Structures are given as C-alpha cells and as structure tokens.
Amino acid sequence: MDGVSGSEKETLVLLEQARKGNRSAREELIAGHRNFIVKCVAQVVPAQRADLTSTDEYSVALIAFNEAVDRYDASRGASFHGFARQVIRRRLVDHYRASRRHAAEVPYAELPRETGRPENAFPADEAREEIQRLTAHLAEYGISFEDLVRETPKHRDSRRIAVGIARRILADPEMRASLERKKKLPFKILLRQLVFNPKTVQRHRRYIIAVCLILGGDFPLLRDYVRGIEEGGEQGGR
Predict the structure, then answer these.
(1) Cα(147)–Cα(151) distance, rounded to whole angstroms?
(2) Rounded distance, CA 81 to CA 87, Å?
(3) Which tens digits make up the pLDDT trace of 139-182?
(4) Which stretches of the chain are DSSP H helices?
(5) Shortest CA distance to 72 belongs to which of 56, 63, 83?
(6) Residue 186 near residue 180 (C-beta atoms within 8 A)
(7) What pTM was estimated for this model as a whole?
C-alpha cells in the first residue's frame, strides 16, 4: 500500500474485514463515513434541505454505500471514496426514476409526517391494537414479535439501511408481490438490484419484513416510529 495515507490504509483494512463478514468492521466503516455520505447526497438532491440525514435520499445513500463496500475492487486502481461516490450517485438517480415510475403504487407524499410526539404519548389502546395486529400479520410470515425485538439492528445506521431496503421492496411491484405471495424476502431480485452481501440482508430479514408490513399496512403509530428511525429521532439508538 505504498503511497496510501494512514486513514486510507485503515479504510482498506476495514473493507477487507467487512467483506469477510465482520459486522463490527462494517458498522465502523458506516459510522466513520456519515459526513462523506451526507456530502454525496448534497451533491445530488434536487433542493437543499436543512437536515439531509432525515431524507429518503440519505437512506438510499446508506444502502448504496453498503453496496460499495461489497463491490469495491482495489486492484482496478480507483479509490474507494471515488467508487463509493459513483455508486451513491447512480443509486440516487435510480431512486428518483423509481419514485416517479411507481408513485401510484407507493404514494409517499400522502404518508403522514412525523408528529414529534414521544412514544409514551401514543394512545395506549391504539398502540396495543396496532401491535396485536402486527403480531398476527408477522405470524403469517413465520415471525414472532420476540424474533423482531431480538433481531432489531442495534445501530441506527443499520436500522436506516434496513428501512431503506424495505422501501425499495415496496416501491417495486414485482418484489412487493413476491413478498406478499411467498411470505419471504425476494432475495434474488433484491440482490440483483442492490448487489448486497447476502449475509447483510439475511441478518436483518425479519426486521426488513416487519418494516414492509408496517409501511405497507394500516399502522399509523408504528409508521410514525419507522419515520422516526429514518429521521434519527427514535430513542435508544446510536
């Protein structure tokens, strides 16, 4: 690695570890590149916004960065950051095209915005009723609520990536139909589109399915909670 700075060497080491399945290395890469990802989003978003980390574009960029981690090949001579920037830009362009194409299937503009109320302010009866319905729906997919609690990603950016994957599934009629018909993630289609490490998707598959059910169903309180994850407002995250 002659001619490579210390920080670049560290990044390359983490990249190698992440591709071998080291979850901590992947989390460290993502956490250390948040500002980089935000800058990439700022170069592409159609209008300047106060907090880019609360946008759908940031979730898409996180997914794209994770993809870049899995696809980067140092032997081709390009820097990782240059490659990651290119992947993020392409995925954001794809996102805008897909949003226009599938606006009828997933009318995001009609979803209620984050209310800002704390979790303990949710009407108890309504929250309990939503959780009961979600639990019953999850059972159709072979998932218990305990599974969901146990397998929820510990890190905020990992949760955002999972939510971004869920939104991508809902925005694609083929993937959404496959999920609803087979009661499992459409791995082949998903991995073909996102070029993810299969272990990354598999690790969070129950959580991704749950988010799909929440965003695609009649769960307004839980949907507010998911939006809070995207906007960095949920408690207990890092």
Answers:
(1) 6
(2) 10
(3) 999 998 778 878 888 788 888 888 888 988 998 888 999 999 99
(4) 6-19, 23-32, 34-42, 56-71, 80-101, 124-139, 145-151, 156-171, 173-182, 187-194, 198-203, 205-216, 220-230
(5) 83
(6) no
(7) 0.59
Amino acid identity at 39: K
Distance CA 22, CA 14 (A): 9
Domains and CATH numbers, the chain: 6-101 (1.10.1740.10), 124-230 (no CATH)
Residues 6+ apart with CB under 8 A from 6: none
DSSP characters for 217-235?
TT-HHHHHHHHHHHTT--T
Residues of the chain scoring pLDDT < 70: 1-6, 46-50, 97-125, 195-196, 231-238
Find out whether 214 and 112 touch, Cβ atoms under 8 Å. no
Compute CA 54 distance to the chain's CA centroid, rounded to the nearest angstrom.
Answer: 12
Tell me the C-alpha distance between 75 and 68, whole Å: 15
Measure CA 166 to chain center: 7
